[in-house]
Amino acid sequence: MTEASICTIGDEILIGQIIDTNSSHIARELESAGIKVRKMLSIADDVNEIRENLTRELQDSDIVIVTGGLGPTKDDVTKKVLFELSGSTRHVENPGQLEVIHRILASRGLDVLEINRAQADVPNKCEVIVNRLGTAPVMVLRTSGSVLYSLPGVPYEAIGAMKDVVEDIRRHYRLEDIYHKSVMTYGIAESSLSNMLEPWETSLPEDMHLAYLPDPLKGVTLRLSVFGGEKSTQAARCEAELVRLRKILGDSIYSENDETLQQVVGRLLIERHATLSTAESCTGGMIASMMTSVPGSSEYFLGSVVSYANSVKHGVLGVRQEILDTCGAVSEDCVRAMAEGVRKLTGSDFSVATSGIAGPGGGTQDKPVGLVWVGVSSAERTEAVKFNFNNDRLRNTQRFAASALDTLRKFIASR
Question: What is residue 42's three-state secondary structure?
């Protein structure tokens, strides 16, 4: 299996000034091509650090992808290191990159200065892949057992260069398939899920790897991976293991196609030619935002009432004042009334409502921070479910919204 390392260069990444988005995109491109990423690392703008790290990665990996450290100023430290590592004796001007430099600067009404022209100069022992989106070329250093590609750090340019880089890799390496299968679950904590699946996971073939990927809005994604072999064969092998997994997890699995909860709910609504509305208190419109983030959601999503105040719960949604005075806003009776109220108000087929305590204040012994009631309703029936979480305000709100969508998913599916 061909393996790669991804190295980002720049003090701005190490001090947290910018987020490294290049590595995640490059990793996806490499994995799709059948190249296993074994390491990601960030390196300071220091010649010695760059030299030491790149030398080691060229020894340990078949392919090294480097981004950053290129530019028209003294920050062009990567080129200095490549000059040394390649054993170059001089710089040579690359006419293809120089042409791009002229075109880009002319489009901006700028003259080509010597500092700009110098970007087309590359170490004579390095090959060049012309960067058509920027002024710094992609430099390629081939050694006896590995190859290094030096890409610009600007994400737009680095991402744009990857197609050419992958094509070059394919010409020089025989790549094997990598097969990934994701199973999306919700409602079972990662630790509990691991305990439930231990016998199944232990019995997996040695070349089949399982990863747990928790997310407050997506739940826990289980990813099966097989490196090498034909994708069709590995897909069939994974499917045989998934048959057993489905029996263990049941309806805690909401998708096997990398879908979000809101996408699955939307698909269920479309299949039933049904519509949805939401009544939200503690989630503050997050459920509506998640639903409308899906393209085409206007086909099934009618609207939302963010009933944060009790006066809106009563005056708009029709929650009886007796419920608010006796049971309180964070109660089963209240969310049932909210769900029924917004469904009747909008004329939707289904509705979901939330009322809870996100924190950090507002909790009591009976109703602690992290408590949420979720109500779901249709013309046939109305149900309510209680959840308890123990996170900060943002994480609680995210879990409230995701739990509401998962409750709604099961409610619609059972119709």
Answer: strand
Instruction: Give the domain 178-255 fold.
Output: Alpha-Beta Plaits (3.30.70)
Q: Is 109 exposed, middle or buried (0-12, 13-18, 19+ CB in 10 A)?
A: exposed
Q: How far apart are CA 274 and CA 267, in angstroms?
A: 10
3-class secondary-structure state, position 25:
helix
Spatial separation of the C-alpha atoms in residues 150 and 163, rounded to whole Å: 14
Per-residue pLDDT of the chain (415 residues; tens, 9 = 90+): 899 999 999 999 999 999 999 999 999 999 999 999 999 999 999 999 999 999 999 999 999 999 998 766 555 789 999 999 999 999 999 999 999 999 999 999 999 999 899 999 999 999 999 999 999 999 999 999 899 999 999 999 999 999 999 999 999 998 988 899 999 999 999 999 999 999 999 999 999 999 999 999 999 999 999 988 888 999 999 999 999 999 999 999 999 999 999 999 999 999 999 999 999 999 999 999 999 999 999 999 999 999 999 999 999 999 999 999 999 999 999 999 999 999 999 999 999 999 999 999 999 999 999 999 999 999 999 999 999 999 999 999 999 999 999 999 999 999 8
Q: How far apart are CA 280 and CA 338, in angstroms?
A: 8
CATH topology of domain 3-172: Molybdenum Cofactor Biosythetic Enzyme; Chain A (3.40.980)
Radius of gyration, CA atoms only, the chain: 28
Q: What whole-number distance in Å separates Cα of residue 375 and Cα of residue 283?
A: 13
Query: Can you tell me which residue has the tokens 């700028």?
Result: 110
Angstrom distance (rounded) from CA 1 to CA 296: 41
CA angle (337 as vertex; 332, 342 as ends), nearest 5: 130
Q: Give the predicted TM-score (pTM) of the model.
A: 0.80
Indicate the fold that domain 261-413 takes in CATH: Maf protein (3.90.950)
Question: DSSP string of 109-135?
Answer: T----HHHHGGGEEETTSEEE--TTSS
Q: What is the DSSP letter of 298?
A: G
Q: How many residues belong to the chain? A: 415
Which three-class secondary structure state does DSSP give residue 317?
A: coil
Q: Residue 188: exposed, middle, or buried by beta-carbon count in 10 A (0-12, 13-18, 19+)? A: middle
296 neighbors 266 (Cβ within 8 angstroms): yes
Domain spans of the chain? 3-172, 178-255, 261-413
Q: Taking a C-beta distance cutoff of 8 angstroms, is the pair 254, 184 a contact?
A: yes
